[in-house]
Amino acid sequence: GIFASCSAGNSGPLSATLSNEAPWILTVGASTIDRTIKATAMLGNGIEYDGESLFQPSGFSSTLFPLIYAGADGEPNSKFCGEGAFNKTNVSGKIVLCERGNGVGRIAKGEEVKNAGGSGMILMNQESDGFSTEANAHVLPATHLSYASGSIYVGRREYYINSSLSPVATILFKGTIIGESSAPAVRPGSEGGPSLASPGILKPDIIGPSVSVLAAWPFSLDNGTNSDLTYNIILFLVHPCSHPDWSPAAIKYAIMTTADISNLEGQPIVDQNLNIANLFATGSGHVNPSKANDPGLIYDIQPDDYISCLCGLGYSDEQVGIIAHGVIKFPMIGTTKSFSRTVTNVGEANSTYGVEIVEPNGVSVNVKPTLLHFTEVNQKLKYSVMFESICNKCLR
């Protein structure tokens, strides 16, 4: 079969916005990696705030430059550093604080500052962008700061620009830093679930590296779910070599069931606001290639198994018949419902697997048997899962 992997989309972080949610597709959300290309904004009071920039000029002066807020002229769009933002403001020889957004690209903001004679740019996140930063190939010395760091420059009277008679700043370029312990984290642009077309299917399936991924078209650090899709396609190409007898579904579920749910600190994966990311942002977790190549157990699905999903989505028997000969009615979950699942042992011949249950609020989950004992490779065993609605919990 043909393995299908698609991007969840780049219009996040709002929920129920993702694309490519069919159950036979591996839908991939976006995450950060532990590499940062550090560029630090240093204020005249000596306080430093770390950000990122791919452009790392070696000869940029550590001398403090006058610091100006792009929105100081009071025009509503000037703060975004778009075309004509500095028609009324002299930024020559100054470092300019620009705000992210308003349809103006991050690099384009720097171009506007440079064309107006500015010496550098500090790019500040909007609140919705949170702590996420990206290393871009800026056209002038620049750094991209989180909302928490950037907002210290403007706002309340005691913030630096408003409290200083002559605010100054510079940018210190510190190169590549490996080992960001909060990685992986969900990228704010990653579109989230649930699927509107089929709310019963948990999407995305996984998240994968998509921030500061080295790209060669042209040379740059790419960001977004297109780059994590490329990464995962490369990963999937490895699987047929290691497991030529696996179906596309087996590969998909090997990747999902071995995904990591913790960051490098061993803590739950977080979102752009450093809050614990929910399942509609992370899916099964962050892709782990080594584990996916040796998952122990895999779930496999035959094409006919998808028919019930198509029926549940409202397709007619005739429409479904184009795909398969038989029609299976879609099972609706009521107060109590049981499902059976079959797993295949692709690990060691003599192995035992146990179950660990994390119950959703308002639902009782019972799995039988609680242990599966395998005696040979490729042996298949079944287990059943019963879901029961608990009304007193549902009413909380």
From TrEMBL:
Gene Ontology MF terms? serine-type endopeptidase activity
Q: What's one Pfam family the UniProt record gives for this protein?
A: fn3_6
- Domain Subtilisin-like protease fibronectin type-III: residue ranges: 335-389
**Similarity comment text for this entry:** Belongs to the peptidase S8 family.
Q: Which GO terms describe its biological process?
A: proteolysis
Keyword field: Glycoprotein, Hydrolase, Protease, Serine protease, Signal
Top-rank taxon, per record: Eukaryota
Domain called PA: residue spans: 66-151
- Write the protein's name: Uncharacterized protein
